[in-house]
């Protein structure tokens, strides 16, 4: 797997940790995310900054690196079929994740998440193109 969709949980994890491994991953893989991730990250920006292990300048440089290496896709690029399938998959798990699942369906690439209920719920419904980010990291 060289391409994957990442959700806001993965992005926030990257930003909080500031680990060099993420620079390597972001350079070696092509990650996509929904523009909805910006809303989630904005909502939790104070927590992200508080939990980060980086000094302010380093945090800003690392954040810039992350955001220039992830391809953010606006919702209007997702066709109705992908949105409808995503809704059917996530409506009873967490509706906020519809944009990530729809993007993964649209691009026909895996979704990487740190959200265990989302992962379990999608797998239970037969959606196999989803992987826990920690498992992905171990195998990358």
From TrEMBL:
Residues 5-131 form the PIN domain. Keywords: DNA-binding. GO terms for molecular function: DNA binding. InterPro entries: PIN-like_dom_sf, PIN_dom. Pfam families: PIN_2. This is DNA-binding protein. It comes from Runella rosea.
């Amino acid at each position: 797997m060289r391409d994957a969709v990442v959700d806001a949980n993965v992005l926030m994890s990257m930003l909080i940790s500031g680990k060099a491994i993420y620079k390597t991953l972001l350079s070696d893989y092509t990650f996509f995310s929904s523009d909805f991730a910006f809303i989630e990250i904005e909502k939790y920006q104070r927590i992200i900054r508080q939990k980060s292990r980086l000094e302010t300048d380093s945090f800003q440089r690392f954040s810039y690196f992350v955001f220039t290496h992830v391809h953010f896709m606006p919702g209007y690029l997702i066709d109705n079929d992908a949105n409808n399938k995503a809704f059917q998959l996530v409506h009873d798990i967490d509706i906020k994740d519809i944009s990530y699942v729809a993007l993964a369906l649209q691009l026909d690439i895996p979704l990487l998440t740190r959200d265990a209920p989302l992962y379990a719920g999608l797998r239970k419904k037969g959606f196999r193109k989803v992987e826990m980010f920690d498992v992905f990291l171990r195998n990358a």
